Amino acid sequence: MVTARITGTGAYAPERVVTNDELSKKIETTDEWIFSRTGIKNRHIARDDEQTSDMAHQAALRALDMAGLKAKDLDLIVVGTISGDMPMPACAAFLQHKLGARCAAFDVSAACAGSIFGLSIADKFIRTGAAKHVLVIGVELLSRLLDWEDRNTCVLFGDAAGAMIVSASDDPARGLLTTRIYTDGSQTGILNIPGGGSVNPASHDVIEKRLHKVKMNGREVYKFAVRSLADVVEEMLLDQKMTAEQVDHVVPHQANIRIVDAVLERLMIPKNKAILNIERFGNTSSASVPVTLDEGVRSGRIKQGDVLVMMAVGAGMSWGGALVRW
């Protein structure tokens, strides 16, 4: 039976780092206020001449190198992003051209859950025999979609890209054991960018009201995130007849340290099993999970045979997870 296995990972973050202290000079906030509520100290911000596909390109090259593959070996490219180079065409098209690949390429719009959605899609393409090697990218250049006068959102996000190569395998003991993805469209109002689409087309009024920027009801997002992430992990473990004690590492979406802590507590998984980088990167949306995974792999913390739980939740509200034996 053909299964899917992550054979390469890669990550990229822009050089520029913006600290909490730097933000406190522009908006009414402090390092202590931000860190105590989010766990964030720093975030990376793209250069003015840097595009979303540029970041994705760098992460993809590193993942391909780890997997021992060339761009021509790819059968599919799936990019999770809501901040592509343009509204049309897909960021994946720009990435495909920069890589020199010749395969189908498309975007998935699931916000912070984008890389998990992409991973689930890759798993299905490989298990059905439709693809042997799939490049899954999570990438966001959210710094250009933030209202830098809104301290409830601008302190949270950073720019980055993460990549995963998912390849066909004949080893049923390793790889993606199961994935789950969900959406609850009744919750679109708690996290969105209301301007720029067909509801509020681009106009002077939309710009003046800053409707083209990220809007969030933090309290409602928190409640939804904790409940949905804990539920999806429990579901995956039950499906594989496994327990939380068998999980070696948790690779969580780094949205807010309070969300991560609450989910781990509900699952009764010790915090030392979570791979965390939110203090250094902030919330990088769809890039968060693959960037964190890459750090775990390259540091040697994740070892062959380890059981990983990957999970993310984002606007939509969309959420999902993957249970992996490395």
**Quick one: CATH superfamily of the largest domain?**
Thiolase/Chalcone synthase
* Rg, Å, rounded: 19 Å
The CATH architecture assignment of the largest domain turns out to be 3-Layer(aba) Sandwich
Instruction: Indicate how many domains the architecture comprises.
Output: 2
Query: For this structure, what is the CATH class of the largest domain?
Result: Alpha Beta
Describe the structure.
This protein is of the alpha/beta class and 326 residues long. It folds into two domains: 3-172, 3-Layer(aba) Sandwich (Peroxisomal Thiolase, Chain A, domain 1), CATH 3.40.47.10; 176-325, Peroxisomal Thiolase, Chain A, domain 1, CATH 3.40.47.10. 33% of the residues lie in helices and 24% in strands. The protein is built from eleven helices and 13 strands. It has helices at residues 20-24, 31-38, 52-67, 91-99, 114-127, 151-154, 204-208, 218-239, 257-267, 278-281, 288-298, and strands at residues 3-12, 17-19, 42-44, 76-80, 104-108, 133-140, 160-169, 175-183, 191-192, 215-216, 249-252, 307-314, 318-325. The strands form four sheets. Strands 1-7-6-4-5 form a five-stranded mixed sheet, with helices on both faces. Strand 12 and strand 13 form a beta hairpin. The two termini are 18 Å apart. The model has no long low-confidence stretch (mean pLDDT 97).
